[in-house]
Amino acid sequence: MGFNAKIILHLMGLLLLCNGGFMLLAAVVSGIYQDGVTLEITLAALVTMMIGVMAMFLTRGHKKEVKRKEGYIIVTFGWIIMAASGVLPYLFSGAIPDITNAFFETMSGYTTTGASIIDDIEVLPEGILLWRSLTHWIGGMGIIVLAIAILPLLGIGGMQLFAAEAPGPNADKLHPRITDTAKRLWLIYFGYTIAETVLLKLAGMSFFDAINHSLATLSTGGFSTKNASLAYWNNQPLIQYIVIFFMFLAGSNFVLSYFVFKGKVQKVLRDEEFKFYAILTAIFVLAVGMVIYFRADVPVSEYHPMVLGDLESSFRHGLFQVVAVITTTGFVSADFTAWTPFITVFFFGLMFVGGSAGSTAGGIKIMRHILIIKNGLLEFKRTLHPNAIIPVRFNQKTVTEHVVYNVIGFFVLYMLLFIIGALVLGFLGLDFETSVGGAASSLGNVGPAFGNLSPLNNFNSLPSLGKWWCGFLMLAGRLELFTVLILLTPYFWKRT
């Protein structure tokens, strides 16, 4: 089977056009704040949009059909093209003059990883800070899903793109037409962003900080406008509680939010994944909070020293960091790697949990863990009753063997890529803790890691090749492995 190259290039042009539009928004904010880089960001936007328009114009006579193979190519290369064009504001403004660092920061943004190479964030111009946050927000729900919402204007069906963008086991849809699904998801996403911005402003943040942190929270990204991240507001607990609430929301299935707005609350309460997500979070918070509370020698934060018996502070920091890591948001209120060796290992394990399917979170996803555990437990029954047909059930529905095999295959592939990722970083000279932490964080789109990549540090210490490698892990993790890795197989490119 050959490829429809024209439709691929046409949609690449569409993505560039969208990306340039968001750059113009950053340029407007730059002009309002008169931060000195308005012209540079505008130029980056115009260059991006010009290339996009040219690509669309040259392929205007394309055949309006996207097949499965084209879908995988469009999604993977779409993200790469977005990241490649997203470096322009950094390069043109001089905020990040090095191409390797600029690409790392941009890929980290679009994949909502939140790992940064910037040593002093607070000196960056407002326009660049907003652009940095916007890359999160665009990548959070997926620029591909945004494109799906407007594909009817081009007369193109978007089901193949949606399958490639979200290849997980959850097939829930809000509406039979995929484009209407995308529109509803984006409306909920946009509404939550506005709501958090308003609440953070009322709680004491400046409007600029509020909008940036809302963009990063709902996308489960983690880029902050402060060097200390959310630890900057450790003396304003209300701000941190608001962020915790929206991180938790962003880590849950957005389809459930739609059901709540439709008054179908019971559907949410009966959802197996959501119950598992909420209970796991509560147990983990209790465990971490108790360790902090009963260990007086644990430094909660350099911005908020530990006070013996400070129950609220102990559990707030425990709650904040557990939710931030499970949802792969990556905000920090403290250096959790200093909270005893047990807590360090505990948080390392949390990096492999991930949020819910249908959320903006990265990681393996809770639904996959549930299916793997259920299938593993059922193997005991199958061993005792080899002739019995004992299917895995999820939300009172039978899960097909195909989905179970897909989930197991994903888990094996994920762990294999993590091991290879850590080995490569180790080969480049990083120590064990930094290597395994960097690989787990990049692949899970978490952000802060361990060793030299802990919350008190950033990823700037990585060698150049290590930054490109982590960028690849981020992309593979964000697109849930199969979409990216299938392009590396010889049979994908064979004519059939």
TrEMBL record:
It is a multi-pass membrane protein. The chain crosses the membrane at residues 7-33, 39-59, 71-92, 137-164, 185-208, 238-261, 276-296, 342-364, 403-428, 466-493. K(+) binds at residues 112-113, 221, 328-329, 445-446. InterPro entries: Cat_transpt, TrkH. Keywords: Cell inner membrane, Cell membrane, Ion transport, Membrane, Metal-binding, Potassium, Potassium transport, Transmembrane, Transmembrane helix, Transport. It comes from the Bacteria. Its main location: membrane. One of its GO terms (cellular component) is plasma membrane. Belongs to the TrkH potassium transport family. This is TrkH family potassium uptake protein. It comes from Muriicola soli.
